[in-house]
Amino acid sequence: MDALAAIAEPTRRRIVDGLRLRECTVSELVDMLGMSQPAVSKHLRVLREAGVVSAQTRAQQRVYRLEPGPFRELDAWLAPYRRMWTHHLGELERHLDRKAAGPRLGNKAGPRLDN
Question: Which UniProt keywords apply (predicted)?
Answer without folding.
Answer: DNA-binding, Transcription, Transcription regulation
